[in-house]
Amino acid sequence: MNDGPLIVQSDKTILLEVDHHLATEARHAIAAFAELERAPEHVHSYRLTPLGLWNARAAGLDAEKVLDTVLKYSRFPVPHSLLIDVEETMSRYGRLRLEKDPQHGLVMRTSDYPVLEEVSRAKKIAPLLGPRIDGETVVVHSSQRGQLKQLLLKIGWPAEDLAGYVDGTPHPIMLNETGWKLRPYQHLAAENFWAGGSGVVVLPCGAGKTLVGAAAMATSSTTTLILVTNTVSARQWKDELLKRTSLTEEEIGEYSGSVKEVRPVTIATYQVLTTKRGGLYPHLELVDGNDWGLIIYDEVHLLPAPIFRMTADLQARRRLGLTATLVREDGREGEVFSLIGPKRYDAPWKDIESQGYIAPADCVEVRVDLPRDERVAYAMAEDADKYRLCATSETKTRVVEELVAEHAGEQLLVIGQYIDQLDEIGERLNAPVIKGDTSVKERQRLFAAFRAGEVQTLVVSKVANFSIDLPEASVAIQVSGSFGSRQEEAQRLGRLLRPKKDGRAARFYSLVARDTLDQDFAAKRQRFLAEQGYAYRIMDAKDVGTTS
Amino acid sequence: MSLIRALSKELQARSDDSLRALFCARPDLISPGVPDFAALAARASGRVSVQRALERLNRPQMQVLETLHLCTNADTGHSASAAMLKKLINGSSMAAIERLLLSLQELALVHRAEPPHGVTSAAAKQRHYLPVGSLKDVIGIYPAGLGRSYTELVRLQPAFAQRVVQLVGELHRSGASVSPATTPMEAALSLQHWTATPESLQAILATAPDRTPALLARFGNWAMGAVPQAQRRASVVHESADVGPVDWLLARGLLVPLDAAHVELPHSVGVSLRGGFVIENFSLLPPVPHLGHTSAGLRRNAALGAIAETLRLVGEVLYAVRAQPLATLRSGGVGVREMRRLADSLRIDVHQAGVLAELCGMAGLLRLDVDSSAWVQPPQLEWLSLPRQEQWLWLVNAWLASERAPSLVGQPVNAAAPGAAGHRGPAGTTINALSAEAQRPDAPVVRRRVLEILHELTLEAAAPDGQAPVLDAAAVLERAEWAQPRMARRFSSLIRGLLMEAEMLGLIGSGALSQLGAAIAGEQPDAALGILGEHLPAALQHVLLQADLTAVAPGYLDPELSDRLLTMAAAEGQGPATIYRFSVASVRRALDAGQDAAAMLDFLRQHSATAIPQPLQYLIEDTAARHSRLRVGAAASFIQSDDEAALLDLLNAPAASGLGLVRIAPTVVISHAAPRDTAQALKGLGLSPVLEDAAAGVVRLRRTTPATGSGRPVYTAPRTAPPEADIDAQLAVLRNNEALAPGTAGGHPPAAAPGSEEATQLGLETLLKAIRLKQRVVMNVVDSMGNASRETVVPVAVNGGRVRVFDPDKEIERVLSIHRIIDVEATEELFQ
């Protein structure tokens, strides 16, 4: 019997025993083709998915290597059906190739004639194909490159895109590495991306995805379009680029609801691009009408559907996706794969954390007992109101005060969903509140003050969830959240995962009303966070202040 | 001389060793024993016995036997020699045929005979043979896949007889070199002559439409074929240029219509197509299949993986059945809905669940409870407490011996089982798990053979170092068709399922016969146990508890531990490791079942390799705190005493341990035993209890099922040879009787005792011969009043225990029951 750290299950999951002496070695070996699903303290579980296997193929790994790795580290015999399945799935990638033909333009080639026959007979694919050149080659309308790839993936024959990219308008960009250096993994991520042509780089929040983007821009040295989730995030990109590269204020344009500048490097929000007027997307021209050499998608996991459609038409341009997670709440991982590209770099959170680049977080769930009158109100409320009632309990406000007192002197965020509650907390703590109607300018001012340490406590609503850089927040208190979505949790924790100057652990409190819906949602959150490998504990509201 | 008598004489002259070999090869000959050689010969000539013997012949033996059958005539005593057979078997040698004939003679399927009249003296010196009498019936009408001759077809197919004269006439007029005829028999002979040699047939086919050779090739192995509208009017007159191959062949009489949908390729056409041979391809060596390879490491991985998985799933089936027995349908078997429930609880698909349930059923791990009509786990199942390798052997033995074919579950009823049972369900229904339709009495024999063939092929294949040959159903079937052509047909419907089941049991891994499979095929179960024991890890006694409220068992968990965990957490995942997930619901379930938080945490602490994570502890304690405060439990009796110390003593007394005492309050102890038993036990301890409320309590007498042995299946390979002692006893009887009647050895055959097996066979043989030759026989017949009479009749047919006879004196046909015929004597001319 083998004594490896892996247990390969017949349901296509792989369990990794973390305390095993070969665990690190095995983790690195399987990370290339298996997706980390859960990472609690002792046993991590990975999943083998077709996408993961195809990602591995795209990275140059063949089935034999994958099987060797699995067999080498597995403690028990590996289910034979799984081995066969892996081999078969992997052999599907690359049997169809999109190539550039000097005579016919974009063509699809295959080394396996029946596969081409099969796909060219598929009802949805046939109209995208032009005339057959020979048994193994068929012309593809170049405008359909993206859609074809998308459909091929759906029927299980992902095509390898070797058709190359347009150069775009050259524009010199250089990294300005004075006083800082690109971290090794950022360097590797940018390199891998460039070698692969297009694709996605997966890095945890706080690991410096912006810098990977900057490094890619420097390698490309062409005009670049950067798509981000919102205006604040756009400003942060701009600041970061000004600081880290040779780009100047005049070279970077912002294209958002308020400003519409088109410059060699343009940062646009998803929102403005997807604004629809009279059935048309008036701002899509920004994308089509310019000769971009590189398009960067920030937070790929949030990419809205219209952008996907648009991206399908942009297959000739280099695309870089940046994200903390490939998991999409809407399950459209396949579209990211086929339209943006395969995963080019992925670092497990824990690895980067242990290298000291992001701070470990300590999660604490504080259980609050509702007072009698609130319990009665809760019991009698309509289903639609129940969550709001328990989430905004007054007791929570008191606990927040106690916690703030306990962490006096630390940079602290209070996060919540309900504006009334946040306003009240802001008033009680005498802290500024950032919510939907706070102007961008005001937000930036407050964030800057928080960063500088002038403001120690900030109360923020949902708007602050995505893509805002809040370094040095070491404590966060979540008072209410919308239905425990996995996305949101990762993002909220991301706020705290910034490296601390003194190496202190960040603390993440979530306040939960006992015996209510709130607790059910908390159970989901707990599972997700524990699965992500965070220390998680539960305490009673009355114990607040007695421990720390 | 009668064939049976000839055989009897020959058997008598054989050495004891040769007879011994015969009995080993055909055990049914001496079971039950026979009194003398005549009876032995009669038994050996019996239809059923010959049929069984033919099932064991390999292809060359069968080919020689069929050819011998074709070129001999038992009625006229026309025998054949190896030299004659060689001419009809392409690629054969004299030596090979001699050897094969000898092997057939040893099996008492052929015997020596006088050379036919008129052969040259040189040829007459060669050994000549005749097959046993009933061979014709067993082989059927298409020996070697060849059709009947034109003359026979004219005799038996009136429609063809009517048409053949005209057909020959038309052919003659159209310029074919066939001589015209006036009677059907003449026409048949001229067709036969026309197609007699490969050259002449080639000349005829030269003008055939394009697709004709392809069509004829389909008659290569079997003379009969299906053709739509076989009796269509096809004629060479007015034949259009684009005539189809079927019309073309029918118009020339090269295919003969049998009925509306079938045609036959006549004998002479078939032989000419085979280049003038009866057997076109003859080889003494089995075909060597082209096999792929897999690495030995992969093979072991797959086999061991499958075993661990199967054992785990069988365990889960039993766990699920303990929770809820499998209900049966009124028509028998477990319904699809019930099976789906099982599959869902095991997180596998329905088909796999069906196969597993069958496996459990055949191994006796599930038993049909007659009272509830549900499949339940028998009480005190020994299997559960065995080490895993022995659990595996138990399953393998049960599988080898079982007459059920689990893989048939889920297949359409009619397609899978064409037998009587198969017609019960309406079309479209499928075979249910554990139902009668999946019964296949020949399954053990087929399994054994398949394993043997796998073993053979594996040993033969020269696999490179570290590699093992991959064997598929096609390779096994090909070998089976060579080794036992008459048996192979039974293989084809079962083989795929068998291989799949063998894979589940780890006898096959990654498509190759595993070491375990080889050991089982070689009937060395102990070796298999040894191999498996080395590779199956011991059961784990610990789990890893994690903050995401799961417990992970990194491997095979001790069943007791796993059962206990399942009461407080739900299992997840599929594979060697199991993940147990705790939730409010699962903890509540445990609390409902009577566990309390402290006990649960204690149990977890004991069996966790790590500390209990704080959230898990919180979950259990929090849930328990809210769990109902009233507790209901079961106790068969209680013991109350104000003397707390006495109760404590009682609890600690070893003699009271059988009562299952639990203290639920300082002054109350409950017992699992009935009040009477408890009282009895307490009396034995020197205490004097008062039996409260004994009169009011209903003492229910429960039927206790006696423990029925261990239930462990013991597999013995299907017997191929009778025990040595039986053979010795039989030989003694035969030789002894021979000594008692020394005169019979070389002289006249003794008269068969009326009513003996031999007499029946002889009578039947005489009857059949008379029917074929249309000759008279003399019968002693008893009527319903018991009066015997002697009649001279011409038998017409024998069927279903009755003989149809023609009485030439009264010129009427009558039907006689065979049991009323005392004996049959042939009239003189029959012996000529």
From TrEMBL, chain A:
<keyword id="KW-0547">Nucleotide-binding</keyword>
<dbReference type="Pfam" id="PF13625">
    <property type="entry name" value="Helicase_C_3"/>
</dbReference>
<dbReference type="InterPro" id="IPR014001">
    <property type="entry name" value="Helicase_ATP-bd"/>
</dbReference>
<protein>
    <recommendedName>
        <fullName>DNA 3'-5' helicase</fullName>
        <ecNumber>5.6.2.4</ecNumber>
    </recommendedName>
</protein>
<dbReference type="Pfam" id="PF16203">
    <property type="entry name" value="ERCC3_RAD25_C"/>
</dbReference>
<keyword id="KW-0067">ATP-binding</keyword>
<dbReference type="Pfam" id="PF04851">
    <property type="entry name" value="ResIII"/>
</dbReference>
<dbReference type="GO" id="GO:0005524">
    <property type="term" value="F:ATP binding"/>
</dbReference>
<feature type="domain" description="Helicase C-terminal">
    <location>
        <begin position="395"/>
        <end position="548"/>
    </location>
</feature>
<feature type="domain" description="Helicase ATP-binding">
    <location>
        <begin position="190"/>
        <end position="344"/>
    </location>
</feature>
<dbReference type="InterPro" id="IPR032438">
    <property type="entry name" value="ERCC3_RAD25_C"/>
</dbReference>
<comment type="similarity">
    <text>Belongs to the helicase family. RAD25/XPB subfamily.</text>
</comment>
<keyword id="KW-0413">Isomerase</keyword>
<keyword id="KW-0347">Helicase</keyword>
<dbReference type="InterPro" id="IPR050615">
    <property type="entry name" value="ATP-dep_DNA_Helicase"/>
</dbReference>
<dbReference type="GO" id="GO:0043138">
    <property type="term" value="F:3'-5' DNA helicase activity"/>
</dbReference>
<dbReference type="InterPro" id="IPR001650">
    <property type="entry name" value="Helicase_C-like"/>
</dbReference>
<dbReference type="GO" id="GO:0016787">
    <property type="term" value="F:hydrolase activity"/>
</dbReference>
<keyword id="KW-0378">Hydrolase</keyword>
<dbReference type="InterPro" id="IPR006935">
    <property type="entry name" value="Helicase/UvrB_N"/>
</dbReference>
<dbReference type="GO" id="GO:0003677">
    <property type="term" value="F:DNA binding"/>
</dbReference>
<dbReference type="InterPro" id="IPR032830">
    <property type="entry name" value="XPB/Ssl2_N"/>
</dbReference>
From TrEMBL, chain B:
<dbReference type="GO" id="GO:0004386">
    <property type="term" value="F:helicase activity"/>
</dbReference>
<feature type="domain" description="Helicase XPB/Ssl2 N-terminal">
    <location>
        <begin position="543"/>
        <end position="665"/>
    </location>
</feature>
<feature type="region of interest" description="Disordered">
    <location>
        <begin position="702"/>
        <end position="722"/>
    </location>
</feature>
<keyword id="KW-0378">Hydrolase</keyword>
<keyword id="KW-0547">Nucleotide-binding</keyword>
<dbReference type="Pfam" id="PF13625">
    <property type="entry name" value="Helicase_C_3"/>
</dbReference>
<dbReference type="InterPro" id="IPR032830">
    <property type="entry name" value="XPB/Ssl2_N"/>
</dbReference>
<keyword id="KW-0347">Helicase</keyword>
<keyword id="KW-0067">ATP-binding</keyword>
<protein>
    <submittedName>
        <fullName>XPB/Ssl2-like helicase family protein</fullName>
    </submittedName>
</protein>
